[in-house]
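Box 3.1 A note on notation
Throughout this textbook, protein chains are presented in two layers. The first layer is the amino acid sequence; the second is a C-alpha cell string describing backbone geometry. Keep the layers aligned when reading.
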Amino acid sequence: MNYALKVNNVSKRANDFQILNQVSFELGRGEIVGLIGPNGAGKTSIMKILVGLTRNYTGEVDLSGVRDIGCMIETPNFYPYNTGYQNLMYFAGLNGVGKKKVEELLELLCLTDAADKNVKAYSLGMRQRLGIAQALLKDPDVLVLDEPTNGLDPEGIYEVREYIRKIADEKNITVLISSHLLDELEKMCDRAIIIKKGEIIRFMDFHNDRKKEQAEFVIESLDPETVQKILQENGYHVVSRNGQEVRVRIDADEKNDAAKLLASHNVVVTGLYEACETLEDTFLELMKA
C-alpha cells in the first residue's frame, strides 16, 4: 500500500497520567480509517499530534509524504451573521486561497444553494459540511475529522457520511475520522483502529476481514448438544454452543454438507446462517477485557 503518513511508537504523558502509550499505525492514500475508543482513550490526543496542535510527545510522526493536512477537531466555529460563502472566503484569505476554490468546495459539499444564507440559519449538518469545506481549503491530501457527525439527526449523519466518502473517492484524500456511531463508521471506513487507555488494541480491515475463506455459521437446533457432538466427531471446528445455537467455522460451500450430515443423524436444523460480527460487537467485547 502507498502510505500517506506513519505514526511510530508515539507516547504522551500529562503529569503522572499516560495519555498515549507506544501508538503505531499507518494511513494509506485515499482510504478512510476510523479511530474508535471510549471517552478518554486518547483519540483526540492522537489527532492533535497529527495536525501539530500538540508537540509534547515522544516517538515519531512521519509526514514526509504529506503535502498538507486539513482538520476539523471538535465543533467548527463560524461568524453566524455572515453567509457560508463569506465565512469560507474569510478563511480562504487566511490560507492564500482564491474565490474559485471556495466555489468548488461549496459545490463539492452541496452547499451552493445555501451559500448566500447566514450560517445562523444553517442546520447542524450544514455547519458540519461547511466545516469540512473549510478543512479542505488548502487542498490537503490528509483530512482529520473528530466527531464530524456529533449531534446530527439521521439525515445529517447520512449526508456527512456520503460527502466524506465522496471527497475520499474523488480527491484521493486520506481521512482519519473518530465517532461513537460505530455502525456509521463501519459503513464509511475501509479500516478501523480501536484504542483503549492510550493503547491500540485492535486493527480491523473491513474489506479483507470479510473476504476470508472461512466464516462463522450459526446452526440452530432443538438438540444443540447432539449437533455439537456430531460436528466435532466429523472434524468440524465448533466455536461455541449457547442455548439452541452452535457456532461452527467452515467454508461457505461446506454449510450444505454440514446440514446433510446432521439430517443423516435425524437432527432437525431450525436455522443455518452466517454469523456476521459487527464493529459494535467487536468493540464491546474488547472493552470488556
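The first strand starts at residue 3 and ends at 14. The two ends are 32 Å apart (CA to CA).
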